[in-house]
Design a protein that fits this description.
Largest sheet: 9 strands, mixed
Number of strands: 24
Structural class: alpha+beta
Number of helices: 24
Radius of gyration: 37 Å
Distance between the termini: 73 Å
Strand content: 15-25%
Shape: elongated
Oligomer: single chain
Length: 734
Amino acid sequence: MAGVIRRLDEAVVNRIAAGEVIQRPANAIKEMIENCLDAKSTNIQVTVKEGGLKMIQIQDNGTGIRKEDMEIVCERFTTSKLQTFEDLSSIATYGFRGEALASISHVAHVTITTKTADAKCAYRASYSDGRPKAPPKPCAGNQGTQITVEDLFYNITTRRKALKNPSEEYSKIVEVVSRYAIHNSGKSFTVKKQGELVADVKTLPNATILDNIRVVFGVNVSRELIEVGCEDQKLAFKLYGYVSNANYSVKKCILILFINHRLVESTALKKAIETVYAAYLPKNTHPFLYLSLEIAPHNIDVNVHPTKHEVHFLHEDCIIESIQKHVESKLLGSNSSRTYFTQTLLPGLPASTSDLKASGPSPSHEAGERVYAHQMVRTDSKAQKLDAFLQPIAKAPPASSSSSSSSSSSAPSAARPSGGATGACGSAELGDEEMLDALAEVEPKEAEKMETSAVGAEAEAGGEAEGEGEGEAAPRKRPRVNKEEELTAGATPKRRVIKLTSVRELREEVTEKNHKGLQEMLQNLAFVGCVNPRWSLVQHHTKLYLLNTSKLSEELFYQILIYDFGNFGVLRLSSPAPLYELAMLALDSEESGWSEDDGPKEGLAEFIVDFLRKKTEMLEDYFSVEIDGEGNLTGLPLLLDRYVPAMEGLPMFILRLATELEETGVAAGTEAGTGSGAGEGAEAGAAPSWRWQVEHLLFKGFRTLFSPPTHFSDDGTVLQIANLPDLYKVFERC
């Protein structure tokens, strides 16, 4: 007997349709988020209880719903975005069928609170099976709409039982909200569990797409992304997005695909792009992809799936092939070199005795204690360095090297004899012992000349103690080695004890900010070599560090100025340098920041000369900066024994000395002109070479005179780039 065909009850039809559209809580949230975006919302907050099965609340600040429309808002096929079927060909909104709220109301209890911009108050109504339970009631509320969905699938027991894991459902919800948050930069998204104070996902309204990816997936992903973008007028599509480079891979492909701002899936596009990455990534690893594809509305069919997570569009194969080629071209450029990120040295640098004991063999080890291979490190600072692996250069004749060195140490300008540079570089490329032999003839003359200048300054200056009262000077952190009397960093005897309150306060500040871990590392490091004038490699126990020599030397010279204040030796210039010409050179450089509003350069230069001549007595007494009666610079402070500063910075030093001369600002000006860039400026042709000065003068100062401030541990001045035990782990896997 043939079955009887009957018309299904409307409630049954609606419940079946609702089950197709709302498959799980994440689908309901997706539909409601799209409604919020269509309402021009800029702030969307999602609150969930028990994975969305017990309660979902979504609130926005959009245009709201008119009171007149609240009667039919939850009925099927009621929408404000579509009027005729032809409108589908140019649809630009997320929703168009009017099924989202209707489907939700047939499988859950829905409450809507909404307020439009021109309404005096908000209105609230509860819905069941697509119809309001009672007329809307006025209430207090902010502009926008708040939708509360409770007891999802309460009337579909089979579906309810299948979704019994709230944690899994909540992770699906977070995934959906996160993807819409990434795509909709400029809008704020928040998702959290009910009762929790901290949101699991929170994006800011002024954040970019890259910022949102960093918030959702972490910094490891965001820093490895390549921006992609292409456009084809013929195929009428435009692509924009970010894809991971060859440095990054995950076990499962992450594809966030938006077509015309709608979150969809495309198996064909996913496979095509993964085919490109197969040549770059290790086996069984996959990329991260965020792609936003805009296609002409008349070329796309959005009405092919109840949940709209699939779309069909014209010229699909051609568009996918074009995207595939563009991504491959970007990867080809990014694979020319791999990027390795360094980790800033953390403040807790290990300096305990247990760490020192475990880091390598030492005489204190017990006879029966075993030292493993990954703990064996070079501890002799005189052992082989990077210089041994560089191609040696023939030594320069001793006479040429000697004469050029002695002349360059007193040169008042940036111009230096070329012979000194050749001899110095040659010695820098040799082994340690050969390099020291090559400079043996240079050093005694250099030191003798500096010492003579310093002693002369001492005889001229006199030596009365500053201030009155009893007591000793504030002790140096690590007192220098005293033979007959205490010496300065420039190896000249101290003439007097400084008791000025301002100087003492600066010394105390240096002591308070001292980082003990960094200090221990600098005292016991093994110098590896100079990377360039700014960076040097050193080893400490089982770790390799990259040090910013420029920053360290700048701070070193500042501390020398503070601790040796009023006791400097003099580095005399071979010929006096006119202050007027130095000031003009400084004002002509871009670094001075001079503009026409400041007045003519000649007038400023004359002001600088007059100003410094008035301060001549103070500059000579405190800082050993000598200026003669004719306005010529004749001497500079000798801050570090045998160290000759780069004279290229002399003009700017004079300019800063005149413009920053306010109390302790004198020290700042002297530091800027004499200390900063200590390892850099000498490269132009100083003798000895800048490499020799960095290793044998600056690093000697770091070991014995330096108190590194705490901020050096986390501002990139000290970078850890390798650790021997970690390297062994890498090699064991190879």
